[in-house]
Amino acid sequence: LNLDLIQSPDPGSLKLLEKNFRDQGQLELANLVFYKLKIEERSKKSPLIRYGEMVFMDWPAGYGVRWHNPMYVSAALVLLFALIYYCANVVRYRPPDESHGFIWRVSDVPVTTNKNLRPGRQSRLGRACDALYFSASVYTKFGTGQRVANRYQLVVILEWLVGLIMLTVFAY
Fold this sequence. Notes:
Layout (H helix, E strand, L loop, with lengths): L10 H13 L3 H17 L3 H15 L7 H20 L2 E3 L9 E2 L13 E2 L4 H17 L1 E2 L3 E3 L3 H19 L1
Antiparallel strand pairs: 1-3, 1-5, 2-4
C-alpha cells in the first residue's frame, strides 16, 4: 500500500480507512494510514509547530508506529556524543575499587570533578573506542561505571537525559 500516491487526502477518509484496517486486524496497514494522517495534519500547522513535531515526534518515534526510528536516532546520537567526547578527550578511568561492575545505572550520571583520574587510552583508536563505549553506557545507562567525564559535565548530563527520554519512547 503506497499512500504517497494519494495527493492531499481527506482526513475523514484516512480515519475511516484506518478504522477499517484496524477492524480487519490489519494493524500494519492501519499504522501506515495513521502515520500518513499525522503527516497530513502536520502540514496544515504553523511552521514552528510543524518542524517541532517533525523533530520531536516524527524522527525519534514515528508517531508511535515506526518502531525502528528510535533505534536509528539513538545510534546517531550515541555516535554524535562519542565524537564530542573523543574530540574533547574527556573520558577518564575510575580506580578499579570505585567501579561497581557491569549493571544498569539509571541514577548514576558518570561525571566527576576529580582532575587526578587516569586518562583513557592514548592511541586514536583507543580513545575512539573509549568515547564510543562511554557514550553508549551514558545513553543506555548500562555499563561498568569505570569510565567518567571530568569535563563537559553538562554535555554528559544532556546525553543522559536524552537517552532516558529515548528509552522511554522506545518502550512506548
